[in-house]
């Protein structure tokens, strides 16, 4: 794996683009969590199964990072990013495209030179909230 958290995150993006296995990026723990656009996976076994299914049924991934921010404190790291994503569902021959928001937590493994996700959350704003002026909680009047 990778020796710093940011490199791990960007390597995950690249593995997604290339259709490679993604489960090794996650901690093999029963409380690891991955929340995607349409699923909530809890525990390494469910995450690995979900990612395997995703890899088997999708193709032609585009993953473009726009605002990656990573903070590290000891053996923990957290990040946020805005990511443009697109892919083809090979079962339905349907194309999808989303502007997404990513947040997550990584932990440095006991060997000290490998970072893995313990949480990963990917979301997309609804069409009604795509623009800053549509902010539901704006305090500017």
Automatic annotation (TrEMBL):
<dbReference type="InterPro" id="IPR037401">
    <property type="entry name" value="SnoaL-like"/>
</dbReference>
<dbReference type="InterPro" id="IPR032710">
    <property type="entry name" value="NTF2-like_dom_sf"/>
</dbReference>
<dbReference type="Pfam" id="PF13474">
    <property type="entry name" value="SnoaL_3"/>
</dbReference>
<feature type="domain" description="SnoaL-like">
    <location>
        <begin position="6"/>
        <end position="126"/>
    </location>
</feature>
<protein>
    <submittedName>
        <fullName>YybH family protein</fullName>
    </submittedName>
</protein>
